[in-house]
Amino acid sequence: MARNFSIAPEEFYHVYNRGTDKRRIFTSVSDHERFLALLYLCNSEHSVDMKLQGSTLYELLEQPRGETLVDVSAYCLMPNHFHLIVKEKADGGLSKFMQKVTTGYTMYFNKRHDRSGSLFQGRFKVRHIDTDRYLSYLISYVHLNPVKMFEPTWKETGILNRTDAQAFLRRYPYSSYCDYLGKQRPERAVLNTKSLPDYFLNGTDFERAVADWLTYKPE
């Protein structure tokens, strides 16, 4: 389906995709770490050695990469899909970045799991974030995705234990939730949140804003 908008510099976008046939695309710690490494290394005008052998995630996140193509403001990796919030910095930057990430990850995944063919459900999906209110909402939406692993029907039935759900989000290692809380960890290198409006005064303010959505109760 053709997009009814053009991707343009200095604009924010919600980027997402899932595995073909809804298959799992992250099956191990190594899979998650490879995708995170690619989010960092592919965000560059330079080419990337897609084999990336002999280095740990933390060593890869320390590699110089020069000028970046996009600002990654938030991310969440789920078992069969991913979400990103990005700001394009130059014409064609977002498409180039995503092509490098998905091609590199597919090559890695197919070799590691002895398979061939497409891994993702077609071209990456993208939605223009055209209002400040929508951007603020999506920051919470992306970080709330792991709650479905904790309480699969929470959107239909409401959250049963808000405190435990928040604790689960704090423990989930494959999103930028912990980074917004202010936790110091190497994965922070993937992000550049400086271009975001000042929605949150601190980690507590961020967690409160996200938690407000956990009070949602279906009618």
Structural notes for this entry:
By secondary structure, the protein is an alpha+beta fold. 37% of the residues lie in helices and 13% in strands. The chain is built from nine helices and four strands, in the order E-H-H-E-E-H-E-H-H-H-H-H-H. A four-stranded antiparallel beta sheet has the order 2-3-1-4. Strand 2 and strand 3 form a beta hairpin. The chain is globular, with a radius of gyration of 17 Å.
Q: Which key terms come to mind for this protein?
A:
alpha+beta, 219 residues, 9 helices
Outline:
This protein has 219 residues and is of the alpha+beta class.
Topology of this protein?
Layout: E1 12-18, H1 29-41, H2 57-60, E2 70-78, E3 81-88, H3 93-112, E4 125-129, H4 132-144, H5 147-150, H6 154-157, H7 162-171, H8 177-180, H9 203-212
Antiparallel strand pairs: 1-3, 1-4, 2-3
Helix pairs in contact: 1-3
Order of helices and strands: EHHEEHEHHHHHH
What about the largest sheet? 4 strands, antiparallel
Summed up, the helix count is 9
Calculate the terminal CA-CA distance, rounded to whole Å: 33 Å
The strand order across the widest sheet is 2-3-1-4
- Report the strand count: 4
By secondary-structure content and strand pairing, the structural class works out as: alpha+beta
Low-confidence stretches: none
Strand content: 5-15%
